[in-house]
């Protein structure tokens, strides 16, 4: 196992509501699968974006293979899908975002622009 820090928190059906929907911080959730090649490419990018955003925006992941109920609840049709939540409400979505730091950062921060930093 890698000794590097994990800046993206894994959430499950049991923790989703408390960590995402009830969060006072904007939250971007990656709905992913460990068997998805695009998700694996996106992982280091998400880590970098999460580290750079610090406490400004929380980034979490849901493994849809383990939490199919959450994937169904949020109508996830493909992976990776980023869903942005603010005050418990979905405010944006990016399906298969370009796996670059600038592309992912813009997908996340652009959604919250004016909300996350006010």
TrEMBL record:
<protein>
    <submittedName>
        <fullName>Thioredoxin 1</fullName>
    </submittedName>
</protein>
<dbReference type="InterPro" id="IPR036249">
    <property type="entry name" value="Thioredoxin-like_sf"/>
</dbReference>
<dbReference type="GO" id="GO:0005737">
    <property type="term" value="C:cytoplasm"/>
</dbReference>
<feature type="domain" description="Thioredoxin">
    <location>
        <begin position="1"/>
        <end position="113"/>
    </location>
</feature>
<dbReference type="InterPro" id="IPR013766">
    <property type="entry name" value="Thioredoxin_domain"/>
</dbReference>
<dbReference type="GO" id="GO:0015035">
    <property type="term" value="F:protein-disulfide reductase activity"/>
</dbReference>
<dbReference type="Pfam" id="PF00085">
    <property type="entry name" value="Thioredoxin"/>
</dbReference>
């Amino acid at each position: 196992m890698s000794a590097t820090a994990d800046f993206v928190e894994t959430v499950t059906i049991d923790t989703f509501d408390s960590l995402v929907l009830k969060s006072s911080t904007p939250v971007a959730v990656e709905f992913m699968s460990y068997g998805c090649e695009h998700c694996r490419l996106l992982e280091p990018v998400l880590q970098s974006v999460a580290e750079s955003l610090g406490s400004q925006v929380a980034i979490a992941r849901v493994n849809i293979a383990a939490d199919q109920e959450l994937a169904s609840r949020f109508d996830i049709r493909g992976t990776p899908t980023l869903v942005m939540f603010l005050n418990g409400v979905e405010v944006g979505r990016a399906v298969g975002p370009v796996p670059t730091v600038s592309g992912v950062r813009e997908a996340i921060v652009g959604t919250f622009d004016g909300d996350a930093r006010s």
